[in-house]
Amino acid sequence: MKKYIVLILAILSVTFLFGQAGEKGTHTVEVDQFKEYSKLKKKEIIDVRTPNEFDQGHIEGAKNIDYFSKSFKSELEKLDKSVPLYVYCRSGGRSAKAMQIMKEIGFVSVYNLQGGFLAWSQKK
Fold this sequence. Notes:
By secondary structure, the chain is α/β, with parallel strands linked by helices. It contains 6 helices and 5 strands, in the order H-E-H-E-H-E-H-E-H-E-H. It has one domain (2-122): Oxidized Rhodanese, domain 1 (3-Layer(aba) Sandwich).
């Protein structure tokens, strides 16, 4: 009986986790959630740090679009707004601001990494 309860709870947890990954709107998520969500095939991972910061280390598969660049918004406009967007910076401040811009220009689902790359690096 215990095995069935554990199995049911595990299935419900996975269903809940991946169900959230497709939700519309903006979300700030912890490192573990960000890692799970970013495993989905259809997604974009955006690093909004400077190119120098990006070159010092980044999340695999991330595209660098510098928040401070004059072309920041125009670079975002080139992306598919229907695909979930996973965004991060160094510690979460720039990416939180970027997430609001992404929402304003029409992205359907945006996930901000709470604590940014620093938090990601500590959880490796």
